Each structure stands twice: as C-alpha cells, then as structure tokens.
Amino acid sequence: MVAYCCLIQFQQQPAQFTNPETPGYVGFANLPNQVHRKSVKKGFEFTLMVVGESGLGKSTLINSLFLTDLYPERIIPGAAEKIERTVQIEASTVEIEERGVKLRLTVVDTPGYGDAINCRDCFKTIISYIDEQFERYLHDESGLNRRHIIDNRVHCCFYFISPFGHGLKPLDVEFMKAIHNKVNIVPVIAKADTLSLKERERLKKRILDEIEEHGIKIYHLPDAESDEDEDFKEQTRLLKASIPFCVVGSNQLIEAKGKKVRGRLYPWGVVEVENPEHNDFLKLRTMLM
Ligand code: GDP
Hints:
binds guanosine-5'-diphosphate; single chain; 289 residues; three-stranded antiparallel beta sheet; alpha/beta; 8 helices
C-alpha cells in the first residue's frame, strides 16, 4: 500500500527527487492498473506507527524506507532525562506524489518508549493516541463534510524487537497485547546485522513461539489466490515465512562491488540494506506495498 517517493514534500524541507530508475525504487507504477486508476482520483492516506525502545534503529529504518530524513532536527535526551520520561508521540507527514498519484504518509514515532525506569504504563499515551484517531475519524465520518476527511487512523505498527535479548521482553508482550485488536502489528527484529544466521533463526522461532503462547495477534498476509501466478504465490509464501522480519537500516551510501549501495561498513565488509541475502528489508518493504 505504501509507495516510494518520486517527489517528496516534507514539511519545511525543499522537495527532493528520487529517480524511479534507481535500484530498489518501489513506486505507484508497480500497483495493479485498477488500483492505480482509483488512486489517481483519490490519492492514498497511510499512517505507519513505529514503536520500540530508543536506539533500536527506528528512525534509521524509516529514513531507509522512505529515502528522506523524517527527523532532521531530532535531539536525543541523556540518560538522566530519560529516567522520568514519559512517552511522547511525534507525527511527521510527508506528501509523496508520483505521476499525479498522491500519497499522504504519516509516520508516528514514540520516543521515550521503554526509557523510563518504571515503564509499566509507558504505552498508555500510545494507546490513547490510536483511540483518539479512531474517534476522530468516526466523528468526521458522521459529519457533513465527509468527502474531505483526513484519515489519521494508525493502519500499521512496526514493532521493533531488540536483537540482544532472548526473545520478547515483558514490555513487548504487554504492549502488543494492548494494541493487537486496534492495529496491524508487524514485528521486526532490529539491527539484524548483529546476529549470525543461526542466531537469527533461533530468535525468530523463539519470538513466534512467544507470540503464539501469549495469544498475540500479529498481521498475517492474506494467502495468494489460487489463480495468481506462481511467482506471486512463491513471493507471498516467502514473505509469510520470514516474519518477524530481520532488518538493517542505514543512512549512508557506500561503495560495494563497484556500485553505490545503502549499507553499513564494517572492518570485515559491507552489510547491504537492500540485499535480500543480508537481511529482510526488501521483504518488509514489499509487504508494506
Ligand atoms: P531510534 O532511537 O530507534 O530511532 O534509533 P536510531 O535510528 O537513532 O539509531 C540508533 C543507533 O543505531 C545509531 O547509531 C544508528 O546508526 C544505529 N543503527 C541504526 N540502524 C542500525 C542497524 O540496522 N544495525 C546497526 N548495527 N546499527 C544501527
């Protein structure tokens, strides 16, 4: 559903251009024709929420996904400040337009989540925010000016899980249970470059077992229809099998094998964000589409 950017107008920032020919570019052009025609008229509205402890790479991933700096002036608080911090909600909206099709993308970040020493109630602010958006939409929908409603309901939540633990933390379980009936949760394992292949496999399995054990409802991709082509069926099967997605984000372009790629440079080599052999970033993006 979410598309990639050809022209981005981000609040005060100047418009940036991204070439549709660049590798990894995902655009409205890739949508089926019918959807495309409908959306030309109306445009899309999509609200993505990102939740997870600070430092797990949320803003880096969002920047990698939408090729724009959503938080150019972000100030990261020190530990002393974080002790008593409450969760804030920061919504940034980008208007993306590609060949006349509009997408209004809102990314809702939740700084402060998991930062306080006692964070039992730290997700209450997030839940109130989700509820308020539903209520506002319902209110607008029952009003007179229904044609021009702005839909700020949270459509999807990327929930960032730490790669350093042994699975879900109590806070992860509590939070996901609190929102699973309101929002589509897509669990992602952050900073997957810190895990070996074996560790990834083990952590994915553990998280899936815990999700089942606690009765947490995560987003399930619908099965491919029986009349879809084999490639599409295979892609859907692969996406389903990869959840929770192991992702890597980066704000840097690095020279690798003679071309510039988005990646992270280590003494032993480059982790490429858009290389499916290195991590599930592309799968996550495909699913979002
Ligand atoms: P946020 O607080 O969750 O938004 O995290 P940031 O995006 O600010 O990232 C925190 C730190 O982690 C920064 O130093 C990033 O460069 C680094 N980082 C972000 N993504 C990754 C990743 O995929 N792998 C690794 N190893 N580090 C990352």
